[in-house]
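Sequence, please.
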């Protein structure tokens, strides 16, 4: 009986196996038929086509047919790269659930995020960042996604990536100036890139754009505050570099005679109004730009004009990773106005000034004289001894011209050999809790809601340095821009 039972069991297994063969064949045939009806074949080319086309139904049929999800195309890209380049979010999401990494490397060591950037898929860039895509990875040429977006002129992707790559914004702006992308420059400065940034050789973004013949980029940089009077370490202006590179039309645009506004010493109220207007204009232009999920949530509000920070009591301080708590301040804008005037020398009671313009010229002035083309009057011309910053044990004689703006009442000292400024560097800061803005300049003090006294120890183009007066502890607040 046992042998008979064993034989029967064997017969049953064989019968079942024979029955399953046509069933499997039928299942595979059915799958191919279903794919064919949808316009696909069970091939790698169609797998990628379905991924690019966001055809989730077809992708599931491929997977049901045991198609390898990690299949690569001839260039080395995966279906996730294809979905990213096609803006196919549903397909990308499905592929992630099937085990593909969001940072999977493909052709040229590029990730799906890079593929989305290069394909100008702004919404997909945003979505991938929210899935945890690493924006700091580099391709085989050393480009991060932000730099790829700048190089290729993808301003939408620049706006999405900026808040994730604050340390790269100034280099990105310099690259945008090099390739002449005005729209990208606009996007970068909205998120905190500084027009005062310089290359290692001392060139500014305006100098780079001018030297490379990018008219629209030059116009925009001038419009958003880049100084046409700044010089490189060799004393060359942007106009000089444009002339040397064979771009006379740009040189003429930059080196025009200064306007009365450029020859003015603005009052704090005027400075605050100009900085407020810049931030509000940027916010209104790009109010529909979404904020990344892991970026600080800061609302841009419209309110009364900014006021000096000194003596203010700000909102309740919040804990952070810095060395001491501060109110949630956000640095929105920086301004430092170069003057088209420089002190060449002082002889007795007479100063020789150089005026920049279409034609550079020199004028001699004494106390009481008006500087041509301006409301500036010379208050005093003198030479004085000043401690050397390089060697504190020695003093040096410097030439000084003090001027007063009769329209605003502001005064300023200009020193020979030092670029002339209209005012100290200032920052526009915003209390994120209230939306109220303030002007901050070096040396100002203010009180926190905790009763402590703080000092603005330095204002730089890309950061504000604040010191706790009692403890001496220092922290920095990075420039975020109107939208950062």
């Amino acid at each position: 009986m046992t042998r008979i039972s064993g034989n029967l069991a064997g017969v049953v297994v064989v019968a079942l196996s024979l029955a399953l063969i046509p069933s499997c064949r039928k299942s595979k045939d059915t799958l191919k038929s279903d794919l064919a009806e949808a316009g696909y074949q069970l091939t790698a080319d169609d797998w990628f086509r379905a991924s690019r086309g966001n055809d989730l139904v077809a992708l599931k049929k491929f997977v049901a047919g045991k198609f390898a999800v990690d299949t690569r195309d001839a260039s080395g890209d995966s279906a996730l790269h294809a979905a990213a380049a096609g803006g196919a979010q549903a397909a990308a999401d499905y592929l992630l659930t099937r085990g593909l990494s969001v940072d999977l490397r493909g052709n040229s060591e590029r990730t799906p995020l890079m593929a989305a950037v290069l394909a100008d898929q702004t919404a997909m860039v945003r979505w991938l960042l929210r899935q945890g895509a690493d924006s700091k990875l580099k391709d085989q040429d050393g480009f991060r996604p932000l730099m790829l977006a700048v190089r290729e002129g993808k301003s939408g992707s620049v706006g999405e990536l900026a808040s994730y790559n604050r340390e790269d914004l100034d280099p990105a702006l310099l690259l945008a100036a090099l390739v002449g992308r005005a729209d990208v420059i606009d996007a970068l400065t909205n998120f905190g890139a500084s027009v005062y940034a310089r290359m290692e050789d001392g060139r500014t973004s305006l100098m780079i754009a001018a030297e490379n013949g990018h008219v629209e980029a030059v116009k925009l940089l001038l419009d958003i505050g880049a100084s046409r009077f700044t010089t490189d370490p060799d004393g060359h202006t942007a106009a000089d570099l444009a002339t040397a590179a064979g771009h006379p039309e740009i040189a003429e645009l930059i080196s025009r005679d200064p306007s009365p506004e450029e020859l003015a010493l603005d009052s704090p109220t005027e400075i605050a109004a100009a900085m407020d207007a810049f931030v509000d204009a940027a916010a209104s232009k790009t109010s529909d730009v979404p904020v990344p999920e892991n970026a600080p949530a800061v609302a841009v509000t419209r309110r009364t004009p900014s006021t000096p920070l000194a003596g203010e009591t700000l909102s309740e301080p919040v804990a952070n990773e810095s060395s001491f708590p501060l109110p949630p301040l956000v640095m929105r804008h920086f301004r430092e106005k170069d003057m088209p005037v420089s002190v060449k020398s002082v002889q007795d009671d007479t100063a020789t000034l150089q005026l920049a313009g279409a034609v550079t010229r020199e004028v001699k002035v004494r106390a009481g004289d008006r500087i041509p083309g301006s409301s500036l009057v010379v208050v005093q011309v003198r030479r004085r001894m000043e401690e050397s910053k390089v060697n504190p044990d020695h003093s040096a004689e410097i030439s000084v011209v003090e001027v007063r703006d009769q329209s605003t009442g502001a005064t300023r000292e200009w020193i020979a050999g030092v670029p002339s400024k209209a005012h100290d560097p200032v920052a526009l800061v915003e209390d994120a809790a209230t939306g109220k803005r303030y002007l901050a300049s070096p040396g100002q003090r203010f009180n926190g809601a905790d009763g402590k006294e703080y000092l603005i120890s330095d204002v730089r183009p890309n950061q504000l340095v604040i010191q706790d007066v009692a403890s001496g502890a220092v922290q920095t607040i990075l420039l975020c821009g109107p939208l950062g």
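The radius of gyration is 32 Å.
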